[in-house]
Amino acid sequence: MFHIIFGLPWLVVVSRFIQPLPWIWTVKLSLAALLLIASQYHFFSRLSSGSVFSPEFPRYVVIGFNVLFGAILLLAVFQLLLDAVSLLILVAKGSFPVVPVGVRYAMGITAIALSALGVSRAIVVPPVKDMEIAIPGLPAPFDGYRLVQLTDLHISRLFPAAWTEAVVLQTNALDADLIVITGDLIDGSVEHRRNDVAALARLQAPDGVYTIPGNHEYFFGVDNWMRHFEGQNMRILSNSHVVLARGGAELVLAGVTDLSAAATGSPAPDLSAALRGAPANVPVVLLDHQPMQAAKAAESGVALQLSGHTHGGMIVGLDRVVGAANNGFVSGLYQVGGMQLYVNNGTGLWPGFALRLGTTAELTRITLRRAAS
Q1: 3-state secondary structure 30-54
Q2: I want to staple 294 with a disulfide (CB 3.0 to 4.6 A). Which of 2, 213, 226, 341 is the partner?
Q3: How many domains would you assign to the chain?
Q4: Which ranges of 261-363 does DSSP label H, i.e. alpha helix?
Q5: In this structure, are 302 and 165 located in the same domain?
Q6: Element (H, E) at 240
Q7: Any idea what the CATH number is for the domain that residue 336 is in?
Q8: Are residues 348 and 200 in the same domain?
Q9: Handedness of CA 306, 311, 313, 315 (dihedral sign)
Q10: 193 and 92 both lie in a single domain
């Protein structure tokens, strides 16, 4: 069914865009066949690794698939919009308009160009995003405390060892007090990704490197991955917390498992367990991969929740769909009751649909400030 759904845009493109072109049938058939192969990118990914989430092809092939796959989707949208306009003209004038071939050429060129641009924006090492978040009751010694949030790295054939190394170098150069990674670090098994994730062991911060699992870790053996990351100088916060100390003051850093955990037989997210034993009247920073349960975190007295998962919606317009699937949270800073929620656009992107149009990837440095009374 997954592959049939992704074949539907191809049917729109073939029947409504390619078929009317004034080309010889062999050329049209060849183009249709090429796009059919691209439309089944996720099927070929599954053949390569057993999972649609881990294409085990050379990086240039993964990039090519993403460009063509994105172009099909964009062109299908353009064609449907063109057909909608044509139907309005039919209703108004009583005849279906003849679409100039130049319009179709412009649509095709635009779809390819936008898709190539979107992929190129998705696969770069993201620029640093600096922001300040004021927290009520933040102890004075933590005023100016700096943490770097990485999330949704999706280390894979698309985001390989060289990309990971560049992210690590840029992160360490920010000289943060703490580094947190809010899930979806990988796409692939430990066997396939061992070399690609090796550079993560070189992340350094005075108060350490902490991570939580995202939904993609559960696709590839979450226990194996968490053990592997523990051996890479990271501490896993799976329904647990640590107390950070500075100048006699304290700050609680907590983390929960992902919402998808229970479906795989793993421990479900449990904020009560994560905060059990935490000192009272101390601000809590919570790491939760998905932002959907922010309201519950706010009710539990969390001061700041850091999440990812949404990739910022990836494409303008699609962000509304992504937001609707995540209780309205898609990108940026939100006030949820007495808590602040920051939804990070992601450092990387799922290699199955790696386009960014109107959104940017993030390598985010957050400076905590003490809110005015």
Answers
A1: HHHHHHHHHHCHHHHHHHHHCCCCC
A2: 341
A3: 2
A4: 271-275, 294-299, 318-324
A5: yes
A6: strand 240-246
A7: 3.60.21.10
A8: yes
A9: positive
A10: no
Q: Tokens 């936008």 label which residue?
A: 114
Domain that holds residue 116: 2-122
Q: Are residues 232 and 360 in the same domain?
A: yes
Angle formed by the axes of helices 59-93 and 41-49, nearest 10°: 160
What are φ and ψ of residue 5, in 5° steps?
Answer: -60, -45
- Enter the tokens of residue 360: 């940017």
CA quadruple 312, 317, 321, 323: dihedral positive or negative?
positive
Listing DSSP states for 339-353 in one string gives: EEEEE---SS--TTS
Q: Report which of 158, 183, 196, 122 is spatially closest to residue 45, judged by C-alpha positions.
A: 158
Same domain, 115 and 147: no
Residue 13: DSSP 8-state:
I
Count the neighbouring beta carbons within 10 Å of the beta carbon of residue 172: 15
Which contacts of 358-361 are long-range, i.e. CB under 8 A and separated by 24 or more positions? 358/315, 358/316, 358/319, 359/311, 359/312, 359/313, 359/314, 359/315, 359/316, 359/319, 359/331, 360/121, 360/126, 360/127, 360/312, 361/121, 361/122, 361/124, 361/126
Considering the domain architecture, whether residues 215 and 355 belong to the same structural domain is answered as yes
Q: How far is CA 357 from CA 66, 311, 312, 315, 360, in A?
A: 13, 11, 10, 5, 8
Q: What is the DSSP letter of 360?
A: -
